[in-house]
Amino acid sequence: MFPSKNFEKIRKQLVAYSEKREEIIKASRDVLRFSKMAISSLHRNDVKEAEKHLSDAEALLKKIKASAALDVKLAVVGAYSAAMQEYIEAKTFFHFIKTKKLLDLDSLGAEPEDYLMGLSDLTGELARSAVLKTISKNYPDVHLVRDFVVGIHDFFLTLDLGNGELRKKYDAIKWNLKKIEDIIYDIETKTAHHSHPAVSAGDERE
Known about the structure:
This protein is an all-alpha fold. Helices cover 80% and strands 0% of the residues.
């Protein structure tokens, strides 16, 4: 009554899909891990190590995209999107450190929303970078970071964000920009103080 071959075919398809999905999830976790390691390396000024971690992430991303190309449903696995956003964050941070420029969407082969989510998270790393640059008294680069984050912030202002994840990310960008601007305010206040030292009582009597 029931064609066993038909059910067997369905079973094999479901098993194959499940296995591919698990492969993508595992590879995505590794991409996310390598991307985080790259960011950590960049904060330690170890560009060579960061480059290696990014290379490892990119190799896995190629495999993921090859698997996803076989089945459109695999392309929307949540773990992949999260990994892609972390990779974009790491890759754009790496590019900024090397060139002081923004890496564009086409260079990453990402979906626009993943790209924007990654850029939002990038502003958090740039705020952290601004703190480290202030500690090392690299003040010109702090201003450069501020101008770069302003550019991302102003672009988000042009979007109709609604109340989704991108709206939350925009709020994070605003917070990160404020943090950087507060750092610059402190730098300029201290610089002005050192440029105009207080007049001592002895100087006033003269």
